[in-house]
Amino acid sequence: MKTVVIGAGLTGLVTAIRLREAGHDVTLVTKGLGGLQLGQGTLDVFGYNPDRITHPLAEIDKVSATDPSHPYAAIGSDNVRQGMEYTKGLLEGLLEGNVEENVLLPTAVGAIRPTSFIQPSMANGILKPGAKYLIAGPRELKDFYPQLIAGNLARTKLDNGGTIEARPGSFSIPARGTEVDSSGLNYARALDRPEYRKEFAAQIKPLVKEGEIVGLPGMLGLADPNAWRDLQDLIEAPIFEIPLPPPGVPGMRLNERLTSIAKEKRVKIILGSPVTGATPEDGKLASVTVASTGHDMTIAADHVVLCAGGFESGSLELDSYGVMTETVLGLPLVGTDIPEPTHGAYWGDPQPLFRVGVKVDGNMRVLDPSGKPVYNNLYAAGGILSGSIRWSEKSGEGIAVGSAYAATEAILGGNS
Fold first, then answer.
1. Could you give the CA distance from residue 339 to residue 352 in angstroms, rounded to a whole number?
2. Short-list 161, 208, 238, CA closest to 220
3. How far apart are CA 51 and CA 275, in angstroms?
4. What is the C-alpha to C-alpha distance for residues 416 and 412, in angstroms, rounded to an integer?
5. Cα 414 from Cα 133, distance rounded (Å)
6. Angle ∠(354,287,297) on CA atoms, nearest 5
7. pTM greater than 0.70
């Protein structure tokens, strides 16, 4: 079986790997690098609806029963559970947690956020009543503000009414040479080196008081998954990472691991090549056309899985006349009947524009306005699905992985 996967984010990579493991001839086509490295390196399943959620899987069942337009109603909690366990297995050593319960982590501004799966380097940062934190970072890193983070954390009341202690600290060490404005990526590459970790730890260790947990910027090694453990041993205190604004090193780690697995499994990856069209035949898509240097390329397909994201990746577009389109395959959209697609109240009602997307059935096949599949072998997964505001729900990765698993289950169940 030949399958074309469009998109190289979390959804596309998981879809491509699982189908390749099942024996499919998989071609992954992408116009960019995918959005994983723009994330925080965690996998959110369901964080808010609208209040903060403790048990995300139970909330998926609740939403599935009450809101048939939500992606989780089509995906179902079983696919989310199995998809997350499958993805956790792919990312063994880089991911821990479970789909049943959220934990609370600090953000780069000292707020708290719920998530389900975290990297081991973040585990010591799970917020607990009575904990004492030192939030510290190098002065040369301009995207990390220890005083802001510590001040907000110290004012935070946890769900059980408990509080935490937090204080700021800073030190000076450039990532390279004498540069005074270093990036998180430069620090991560430097911290992959044992000799630099010793210098880095020597700056932090004198700042730590007994009983404190040290919060550091999310840049504790890129290629070496144990860099943070070595640094922790050198500091002689528990440490954890706080994700920085994108691009984020923890997200890069996940992206590099999944991309490496896809290559090892012999997924054919075509980078920098947008899809320009597709050829229908007998109710199916017979091939996908891809722009490449010199001439277009036609790729035959038994199945096509659209994992190209939504507005953030350019797969959905709003023109100056208020007309919304799906830019990859020209598919019909749901939720476009919005009287005023924008509003001026920053903290107003949720923006309905971000619920726009394609509608799918339980097998993730894209449906037309009459409820019939547009093409019998066309599936969609991830951010292109209609019905949710993923960034406010903190449901993006759950939808991504759950729909990827549902689509691959449908494909393998019909053609295994």
1. 10
2. 238
3. 39
4. 5
5. 53
6. 95
7. yes
